Amino acid sequence: MVEWVGDLGLFCWRVARAACSRPFEGAEFLRQLDAIGAKSLPLIALAGGATGVVLSLQTRDSLVRFGAKSLLPSVIVFSMIKETGPVITGLVASGRVGAGIGAELGSMRVTEQIDAMEASAVDPHKYLAVTRILACIVALPLLTLAADFAGVLMGYVATTLAEPTSLKLFISNGLHSVNFNDVLPPILKTTVFGLIIGVVSCFQGMRTRGGTEGVGRSATSSVVLSSLFIIVADVLLVQLIIEFF
Amino acid sequence: MEQPPKRESPVAVAGLHKSFGEQTVLAGINFELESGKVTCVLGRSGTGKSVLLKLLIGLESPDEGSIRLVGQDLSSASPEQLNEARKKVGFLFQQAALYDSMSIGENVAFPLHRHTTLSSDDRLARVHQLLASVGMDRDLEKMPSDLSGGMRKRVGLARALALDPVLVMFDEPTAGLDPITAAEIADLIVELRDKHHVTSIVVTHNLRTAKTVADRLIVLNRGKILFDGTFDGFNRSDNPFIAEFVTDAA
Q1: How many angstroms away from the CA of B217 is the closest CA of chain A?
Q2: Share of chain A above pLDDT 70, in %
């Protein structure tokens, strides 16, 4: 455990140093942004949409009992943008992106591709890790917006199937008390989730040992550790958001 | 054959020690490579031959001793100085270590793109030239997964030669190849020496490869240099380990 933390600290130092030095890997960053962001979009939107439907189905019954059915749009919108959207995005991305990065870099490590890169005077921390970590940091807030949008839209669809409502009324009821501080901090919170996914999965991938079995272990540990750290970070970040916003 | 220009030794190693935990891999290695010559490092599996190459290129750090790589003392080199030295060295890994996500052409272009200011047209022409020199210029768009072991090694060699290195390190270049392909790879190593005066260090346990390419043989055993000389001297040696090695290989 102590060795793992020490290695992680050293890895973060190397990545930070590499991120601040030239040349910047613009083309590779864009390639990773596409792989991590654009290719995760359908899955994240589906997860967000499904969550919106479940929120509508579950809360409708409770609100009807308390005579607060008119609050349903607000409950769906607030729930999606403040907590459910960011956390669902973080966890789904840690599954898809974390496993992908862990397995890819792990495979590159055991087949000596990372050594080959280093031997040809290219810093793998810069080319492989910095680009993926930055792509995760940039992609997560954008994916969260997509999850929020899909969640609210599918929440409306579920609501209107149970009791026909106009979209305009649903949106105006849902958004009328939403302000800037309800939207921005939760979205920005996901940059930290992106940082966690990027750092943990790159670190686990690049320290892979033990052939194909090691690659499997790296992929699994990338997902497990990213998810765990996202949940812990969420608790701390929610407390910070309440404190400062 | 043209006479190679006289140059400083591209690699000088003194008092090199390396251990992994309790296991001592290298225990006081000293040698200098002769410029423009091919030196083969022989030894049984697990005697630290590949570790020696990784130490020479700075992928591993020695426990003790000094390494001078193309004029740069690795123990005192900054990351930038180490990278400058590495640009003058090519490295062919045992399994070629081609980048899976890139095509053959992109693999060979990678060091050119990173370390030269060639235009994309000039880079493409250079990639064609390098791949033609190893007989692979028709496969530019193929992915590494589409290639056989021998083809991968040829492409790996083209990539290793991209920056016109003064020194090339070969880690088991003929391991796992059929005899014909192995002979072709060995011929490419000889051609590098004869036509381009490139210094090479070849780690192998294949005596046939060593016989074809080596100007000098270094035999490692139990972390030390057991023999350092020519192939004829190696064949005439009465050392029991070497005699067994020759017998087993025959």
Answers
A1: 24
A2: 100
